[in-house]
Design goal:
binds ribulose-5-phosphate, 13 strands, single chain, Rossmann fold, alpha/beta, about 230 residues
Length: about 230
């Protein structure tokens, strides 16, 4: 589930600014989505000019784009650590740096990459900003566990909704072969507690709450860019 409200110019400013942080020899996590795509394209241009980097893609889409841009890739299981991961978000709170991800159904690999990275840069346009997280939280769920997960989410006070595919009959199937259940909780005053609750549900592979991970946020606006460091 995705918001498409932000302007391309604002997304581009954010994505390109994050790509500028990459230096020679880095292992870079390549996030998923339309804002990160600007970072990957900018990185590709710098690779053309001689920058030496290895990218770790977070999805089939990110992998394909990076290949198109001529960026050398390395598997997540082939690196000990990542220097910098760049990724988008569906909702972002400037005060805390916490965000909700998973609009592209890639949040499991995105979180593994973010966790392995020394620095995690979030790139968003200003339409993604909120005072409090309240965007539906995406859960990647093992298919057989769908009914049980939905019941557990309802017990936790959420409203679950199986994500449907846009250009295929039936539900979205992730790069890992799982389903996505979007869970509306209303305003999430304590993201850490909700995150821990979701992790406990059997059959949930990963949830889209990213708490305490951001080290830098690049927020593109209509006429500029705001950078926040954590
Ligand atoms: C994919 C994500 C994306 O980063 C998120 O949906 C933002 O995408 P976009 O930049 O296209 O708005 O979490 O799982």
């Amino acid at each position: 589930m995705k918001s498409t409200a932000g302007s391309d110019a604002a997304k581009q400013r954010a994505g390109e600014a994050a790509a500028e942080e990459v230096t020679d020899g880095m292992v870079v996590g390549l996030g998923t989505g339309s804002t990160t795509a600007y970072a990957i394209k900018a990185l590709g241009e710098r690779v053309d000019s001689g920058l030496d980097v290895a990218g770790v893609p977070t999805s089939f889409g990110a992998r394909q784009l990076a290949i198109d841009q001529g960026i050398d890739l390395v598997g997540l299981d082939e690196v000990d650590r990542i220097d910098l991961a760049i990724d988008g978000a569906d909702q972002f709170v400037v005060e805390t740096g916490d965000c909700i991800k998973g609009g592209g159904a890639a949040h499991t690999r995105e979180k593994i990459v973010a966790a392995a990275a020394d620095d995690f840069a979030v790139v968003v346009d200003e339409t993604k900003l909120a005072d409090e997280l309240e965007y539906p939280v995406a859960l990647e769920v093992i298919p057989a566990a769908q009914p049980g997960v939905e019941t557990a989410v309802e017990t936790a006070g959420g409203t679950p909704r199986l994500r449907q595919a846009a250009n295929k009959d039936g539900p979205v199937v992730t790069d890992n072969g799982n389903l996505v259940i979007d869970c509306a909780f209303g305003p999430i005053t304590d993201p850490k507690t909700v995150a821990l609750e979701l992790v406990e549900i059997p059959g949930v592979v990963e949830h889209g709450l990213f708490v305490g991970r951001t080290t830098t946020a690049y927020v593109g606006t209509e006429d500029g860019l705001n950078v926040h460091r954590y």
